[in-house]
Amino acid sequence: MSRRRRRRLNPPQLIALVYLLGIALGAAALHLPGMTRPGADLNAVDLIFTATSAICITGLVVADTGETFTRLGQVTILLLAQVGGLGIITFGTLFALLTGRRVNFSERQQLAQQVNALNVGGVLGLLRIIVLYTVAAQGVGTLLLSLRFVPQFGLGEGLYQSVFHAVSAYNNAGFVVVPGGMLPYAQDPLVSGVIALLIVLGGLGFLVQLNVLTHLASPRRNRLMVYSRLTLVTTGALLVLGTAVLLALEWTGALKGLGTGGKLLTAFFQSVTPRSGGFATVDMTALAPGSVFVMIALMFIGANSGSTGGGIKTSTFAILLVSAWNLIRGRTELIAFGRQIVPENVVRAGTITTIYTLLVFTGFFLMLVTNPTLGFTPLLFETVSAAATVGLSLDVTHRLNDAGLTVLCALMYLGRIGPVTFALALNLRETSRGVIKYPPERDILVG
Amino acid sequence: MSRRRRRRLNPPQLIALVYLLGIALGAAALHLPGMTRPGADLNAVDLIFTATSAICITGLVVADTGETFTRLGQVTILLLAQVGGLGIITFGTLFALLTGRRVNFSERQQLAQQVNALNVGGVLGLLRIIVLYTVAAQGVGTLLLSLRFVPQFGLGEGLYQSVFHAVSAYNNAGFVVVPGGMLPYAQDPLVSGVIALLIVLGGLGFLVQLNVLTHLASPRRNRLMVYSRLTLVTTGALLVLGTAVLLALEWTGALKGLGTGGKLLTAFFQSVTPRSGGFATVDMTALAPGSVFVMIALMFIGANSGSTGGGIKTSTFAILLVSAWNLIRGRTELIAFGRQIVPENVVRAGTITTIYTLLVFTGFFLMLVTNPTLGFTPLLFETVSAAATVGLSLDVTHRLNDAGLTVLCALMYLGRIGPVTFALALNLRETSRGVIKYPPERDILVG
Ligand SMILES: [K+]
Ligand SMILES: [K+]
C-alpha cells in the first residue's frame, strides 16, 4: 500500500515535496538551542525564511548570518544549501538523461555515451559522480580561497571560511559569514576571482560542464552540444555586456574609490553575481538607477537549466532573442548553430517567461500592497532577487513585515522548483507517466 | 521613374514614412506664428515632442495644452491626432482585409461578406465607410458631451470643448484642453462615462465594432469572430479586474474624498484610461505604489490590434495567458472558443512581447541614464506610457531634459507604428511583396 502510494508521486510532485520537507526540517533545526547567538531575536517567520533561503539556495537574510547564527547554525545553513544545490543538480541531470524531456534524442544518445565513458553504471553511479564532481570543484575552490583566508584568520578559522564560501559560491547560495561581508575583497583578485569562477561553474550546470570537459579531452568523439554552445555564448555575452555597462555607469560612481584594475574586477564580479550568486563586493544601495535596472534584468534572466542558478534561464532568453531577431528579419525558420529550433521550443520559451513574469509581478504587487512605505525600486529588487534565487538585496529584507517575508518565501520556493513544476505537482489528473504531460519538444533545455 | 520608386515602398515602409512625415509637418506647423500663446517657451525638441505625441495619439505633454497653445494650435494638435488615429484604423483594417495577414482565410471571407453587405465597393469605399463611422461615433460623443459643456461654457466654447474631447477620446489621443483638466469631472457620470465609452470603442478597433454591429443586426448570417470574442472577453476582464484592484487599494487613499458612486466611477475610469486613453480623473501621483504598478501593467497590455490603442495588444496577452495555463495543465493544444490556436500564433505572441519588452526596457535604461535624478518609478511610468501611446504621466515629462524627451519621442513613434513594422521597413532585402516577410500564421490578430 505504501509502495503503491509512493509510486504515484510523479517527478514534479517529488521535487515539490522534497523542498517543502527540507524547509520544514531546516526551520525546525534552526529553532534548536545553540543555533543562534545570545541576543539574536528571530521569530518563527524569520527561521522559516532563513531555512527557505538556504534550501532554495537564495541567500536573502533577515539578519547577518555570521553575527546572528553560531558556528553550528552556520553549518546547518550551509548543509541545507548543499542539499538544495545537489538536489537541483541531480534532478536536472536525471531528468535530462532519463526522460529525455529536455534534450533531443540524438543528443541524448551522445550525452549518454559521454556519461557511459565515465563508467558510472546506472542512476546511482551517476548520482555518485555528480556528488564527487561537486565536492571536487568545491575542494579546489576551498584550497584556493585558503591561500587568502588562512593567513588572514589563522588555520582553523581560515579553513572554515574557505570551505563555507567555496560551498556557498558553487551552490550559488549567496550566504556570507566573513566579518564585514565580501566588500573588503572587491580588489582582491584571488577571493573575487575564485568566487566568481565557482558561481559561473555552478550556474552552467553539471551537463554543460561534463560536455565541455569530455569535448576538450576528445574533441572528435565528443561533440559540443547545441545546448552547450547556446548557453556558453549567452553566458559570455551577458558577462561582457554587464561588465561594460557597470563600468560605464559606475566609473565615477560606486567604483570611484578603486584603481583601474579594481574597477574592472568589481564590475566583472557584479555582472557575475546576479546570475545567481548573490554575493556582492559593492554596496548595492550605492548603485545608480541604471545599474540597479541592469542588475534586475540580469537576475531575471538567470543561469542555465538544471544548475544551481535561477531565473528564466539563459537558453530561454537566447531563444526569445533569436526569435525576435527572426521576426524582425522576416525569416520563418529559427536557426542556431546550424540547427533549427522548432516552434514548440519558442512556444515553451515564451510560455515559461510568461509564467515566470506573472509569478514575479504577482509577488511584486503583494509586496507593494503589504509594504507600501518601503519604496518601489527596493521592493522590485528584492522580489526579483527572491524569485530568481539570487540573494542580492537593496537592504530592505530585514525591514519587511511578516507578510512581506512570507511572499518572498513563496517566491524563493516557486522560483527554485520552477512554477511549472509546482503547477504540475498540483495537477491531480491520473497519468501513468508524469513526464508525458510536458509538451513534446525535446531540442533545447528551456526554463 | 517616380511611379516605379513609389511601387517599391512596401506597406511597413509606407507606414513608417507617413508617420515620420506627419511628425515633421506637425512640428513645422506648430512652429508657425499664432500657434502658441504669448509667453509660451517651447524649443524645437518640445515642438517635435508635441507633434509626435499628437500624431502617435499619445497625449504626453511638456506643458498644459490649453494654457500653452492658442485655439489654432490646439486645433492643429487635434487634427494631427485625428489623422494619426484614422491612419492606424485604416491601415489596420486594410491589412487585415486585403492581405489576410492577420485574419485567417475563412474568417476573412466572412468578414469580407459583412463588409460587402455595407455595399462599400472597393478600397476607397471602405476607407469612406471607416471615416464616416469614425466621424459618426465622434459626433454622437460630441452631442452627449455638449449636454454638460454647453451649459458650463456657453454655446461656442462648450461645443469646442465637446468636439475636442470627443475626437481626442475616440482616437485615444489623451489631449485635454478643458481648464483644470479632467479631474473636476471625476464624479460626473456624463463626462466620465462618455469619454470612457469613446476610449473603449476606439480601443476595440473598427473590425471588431463592425463585426459586433453586423452580428447584433443579424446573428445568424454574421457570426462573431473568434478574434472579436477573444478581445471582447479580455477587454471586459481587464476592466473589471482593474476597477476592483483600484477600488480595493484606493478606497481610503486617492478615492477618499469621493462618494461611493464617485469612487466606483473614478476607479472604472482609471481602469479604462491606461488602455490607451491617457485622460485621468484622479491625480496619478496620489496613487499608492500598488495602483501605480497596476496602471503600468494595464498600459503595457494595451488595447486591440488595428485600433487607436497601443501596448502589446489584448489578443497577444490573452494568447500568452492561455498558453501558460495550458503548460500548467499539461495540455498540448491551445483551444479558445472552440478553435485551436496554432503554435505559430503563440510564437508570434511571445516574439512580439519580447520585442516590445526589449523596446520598453532599452528606453527605460536610456531614461535612467539621461535623467538619473527623476526617480525609478516615474521614469518607468512615463516610458511605458510613451511606448504604449497612453499619455498618462507621473508629472515628470515636463522636467525631462532634451535627451529624455528624444527617447520618449522614439518610443511613441516605434510604439505607434510597431517595432516589428519599423524593423520590416528598414529591411532592405528585395521582395516583390512586403507582406510575405511576415510569418505565415493567419488565425488571430497578434500585436
Ligand atoms: K543565490
Ligand atoms: K493615448
Structure explained in plain terms:
Chains A, B: Pfam families: TrkH. Chains A, B: It comes from Deinococcus soli. Chains A, B: This is Potassium transporter KtrB. Chains A, B: One of its GO terms (molecular function) is potassium:chloride symporter activity. Two copies of one chain form a homodimer. By secondary structure, chain A is mainly α. Chain A is 66% helix and 1% strand. The first copy, chain A, is built from 18 helices and two strands. The first copy, chain A, has helices at residues 2-8, 11-31, 44-55, 65-68, 71-99, 105-116, 122-153, 155-170, 189-204, 206-217, 226-250, 260-277, 289-301, 314-329, 343-370, 376-387, 402-417, 419-426; strands at 334-336, 339-341. A two-stranded antiparallel sheet of chain A has the order 1-2. The two termini of chain A are 35 Å apart. At the A-B interface, α13, α14, α15, α16 and α18 of A face α13, α14, α15, α16 and α18 of B. The complex binds potassium ion (K) (2 copies). Residues 57-59, 172-174, 276-278, 389-391 of chain A line the site of one potassium ion (K). One potassium ion binds next to α12 of chain B.
